[in-house]
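Hi V.,

You were right to ask for the full record rather than a summary. Here it is.
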Amino acid sequence: MNQEKQTPAELRHVKNFRIHRLSGAWILLIDNLFFVGTISTGGLSLPISCILAFLSGGLGVFLIEKLINKNSFNQSFLRGLIAGILSGIPISIAGTVYGAWVLAMAGIKQKDITDNQSIIEVQSSISDSTNK
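Predicted structure:
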């Protein structure tokens, strides 16, 4: 009998949960944008920043996934919801496990980012490659 090697259902589901590279950059950009200014207010604007980061992160990823990546409404909504939650966490996720997960789901590997590149250079190179 010739049996093909099949991956477990959980792994197949994770492999299908890929996001556009621009979505990954958007999540990290929104996360850093909203919570850098919170320090200057002494944390008083934290609830507003969390809500705005959730809304803009989720809506941005939804639109990117729907319009650019051509996903279905349900897939785009799910990705937008997860992105909103990750963007709304009141800390910078760039150096955490969540940030690494976002980069992995966006298909950005460690070899794509050199030690000399800043986050701005990486984000601009990602947006340049998606515009082609």
